[in-house]
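Lecture 7 notes: from sequence to structure.

We start with a single chain of 423 residues. Read the sequence below before looking at the structure.
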Amino acid sequence: MNQPLFTEHRSMYSSTRKHPTVIRIRIRMRDLIDPDCMRSAVDTTMKRYPYLCVELKNREGNRWEFIDNERPVVITDSLSGVELNSAESNFHMISFSWQDNWVVMDVFHALTDGTGAYEVVRTFLYYYCSNRYHAVISEDGVRLAGDVIGAEEWDDPVLKATDLPTPPRNDMPTALNLITAARLEEDTDSTVYSIAVDEKEFMRFNIENDGSPATMISLLLSRAIAKLYPDRKDVIRVTMTVNQRRALGTPLAHQSLVGGAFLEYTDALKDWPIDRQATAYRGMVFAQSREEAVLAGVASMKGIAQMLMSKETDQERLGIVKMIGEMTNRLVTATVSYVGKAGFLDSEDYIRDFRLWTSGTGTFLLLEISAVGGRFTIDFLQSFSSPIFVNAFLAELEENGIKYDLQDVKKLELPNVRLPWSQ
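Now the structure, written as C-alpha cells:
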C-alpha cells in the first residue's frame, strides 16, 4: 500500500547527519541475547506493523511517499546499528541490533513517535520473551501478528482533521538560551546522562507535593536552571510533550502526533513552596491539554505540512524547516517528554534497563522519561558534553530528598537516515 507523506515532512526535512531525527530504544535484558530468538521475534513483530515496513520513494512532482518494503528488517550484532533508508538497512527506516544482553531498536521519527515505538517494543518483547524463556506472557494490550489492522491505525488523522480551531498568535517572549548562558558554543559533543529514581518513592513525592512525573521533572529542572541564573532576563520555558491522539479521537494512530504545553517559571513562582509551584505547573498543563488547545496545535501542524507540500523543491522545504527550528530555539529552554508507564507487563521480569534516546537538537535540553521495571529513568539528552545542567538538576533532587542513581554517561550516538539532500 502506498502512503503519501503529510505530517512526516517536518521530521524528514529536519533530519541531519549531526542530528538525525531517530528514536533509539535501548533495552538491557536479564540474560545474553539469543540471536535466533531475536530474529524470529523481529520477523513476527514486523508482520504486525506493515505501515512501518516501508521504503521512501519520490514520485512525479517531487511528492514523497512510503511504499511497501518486503525485504527483511535488518538485525546487526553491534549496538551502533545501521544507517536507515540505505542498502545497509535494506532501505527500511527501522532496524534492530544487539550485543551481549542489550537490544536496540532504531526507528525514523518521521514514521512514528514514542507512543508508536512503545507499541512495537511491547510486541517484540512479547514474542522474544515467550520464545527465549518459554514463558507465558500476557497478551493484554499487546498488538499481535494476525490482528486485523484497521484504517484508524493506517490513516494520518491530521490530514483528515477538519473544523480545527485557529492556532493562537505566537507572541511569547524569548526563552533563556542555555548554550549562550553557559557559554558552551564550542562544546559540540552530544551527550546523554542516564539517571534512575525509584518509581514508588518518586510517586510518593509527587502525591505529597501535588505533582505528576512529567510536570515535577519539568519543575525541578526549571528550579535548577533558575538557581544557576538568578539574574537572567529571558524566561525559563520548558515544553512538556502532549500526545494529540486523545483530542483527535484516534488512539490507535501510528504517526508522530506530539504537541506541547509551555511551562514558564516566572518571578511570581520562584518564592513559592514546591507544592504550590507544582500545582501551578499542573494548572498550565491542564489548560493546554484541553481538547480545543490540543487541536489548535494540530491545526498548526497541519498548516506546516501543507506549506511544505506547496513547495516544489527539497531546498525550499529545508529552508522552511530550518526557519521553524530557529524559531523554536528562541522559544524553548528545555523539553520534557514522557510517554507514560510502559506497561510491558510480564516481559518486565526480564528487563534490567530501559533507555529512550532521540536527537538533542537545538539549543535546549531534552529529558526523556521512561517508567519500566519499577523505576523512572531520565535520559538527559544534550547537544554538548558539559555537566553543568545535570549537576544542577541532581542537586535539586538531593535538596528535595529524592534518591537517584546516575547510571552512566555516554556519547549520544544515533544512526543517520540517508536522505537525498543529505548524502
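The first strand starts at residue 3 and ends at 4. Keep this in mind for problem set 3.
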